[in-house]
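Database export, one record per block. Field names are fixed; values are copied verbatim from the stored entry.
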Amino acid sequence: MNTSELQKIKQRYNIVGNSDGLNRALDVALQVAPTDLSVLIVGESGAGKEIIPRVIHDNSPRRREKYFAINCGSIPEGTIDSELFGHEKGSFTGAIGESEGYFGVANKGTIFLDEVGELPLATQARLLRVLETGEYIRVGGTKVMKTDVRIVAATNVNMQKAISEGRFREDLYYRLNTIPIKMPPLRDRGNDILLLFRLFAMQMAEKYKLPKITLSEEAKELMLRYKWPGNVRQLKNITEQMSVLSQEREITANALRQFIPQDPESTQLATIGQQGAHSYENERELLFKILYEMRGNVSELRRDMNNLRKQLDESNALTNQLNARSVSIQNEGVNLPAVDTRRTSISMSQPQAEEAIAEEISEPETLNLSDLGRQMIEKALERNGGNRKKAAAELGISDRTLYRKIKQYGLEKD
């Protein structure tokens, strides 16, 4: 594009600057405007990305149709699908009627999705379908809707990093990035900084009837050396502050320093890691620490469970032995109630199992002899020829307990 046509575009949209990066961005925007290709504008916050979609729409065949600029980062995640794609009546609380959404209303027109990198993953999938087929479904609906919309998107995040961290779909990125346009940061635009300062100073003087401020040579050099992390937006704010607060209309370097932040955090650019690198070192260390502590707890829990299982198995074996003994004694004419095996079953609830094991460990004699009577002890002594030690072993009780029962039942022999 020749210089005269480019200057007409700048005058029409009040664009100030002659840097190569700015001219290149405008040139690409005008070349892609007659097409329906998707455009992704990349640039830092405050660099002026929002003017490019307007230029594209106004110089496209869709210029007479509707144009919507949507900030994806300002819409709550819970309502963004409804805002973009519409909803059916009663699809959620507050949906008192149906809505077409931006993609329905903007049919045949252009939608500018600012901060597209902030879209939720579910919404990204819906957007990808619109880009590929022009189809979408309203929230709460089943009917497939059609739309013919030109999409221009913008972002200030590192998209490759967002993709590697799983925050943005790679297939959607390539669909949006058919034509990339890069807006240069203010620090790379050279003398455009001074031209923009003059524009903002003149606007303030006309709006508030104030004498216009100017810059000394030293102040101009300081302006050009400053890194402007807030880009054009920051330059405008500082110019407005100086226009209102400065007593002198010529701004010196010392006076300018009072309005420009001097701490390293505001004068140095944010460090951007390598593409694909993850920035959650602290969180990762914390997770490792938690997992390490959990490993010890799991090992201790596994050991306790093994002990519990072993004790329950021993309890079941002992119960089976007593039941078998009771059956044998009943066959010999001794009536004994059967032991309830469900009490110590492995399928019992944990509190019941723990109670049963506690009873088994603390005093197994009480459990074993609760159903034994005088006749059972007599039979055991008779079978073992009066040998108390063998009789106790057969009954599964201690010698002391057997001796106490013998005295209790009066089975002592002179």
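Remark 1: The longest helix spans residues 281-331.
Remark 2: The longest strand covers residues 150-155.
End of record.
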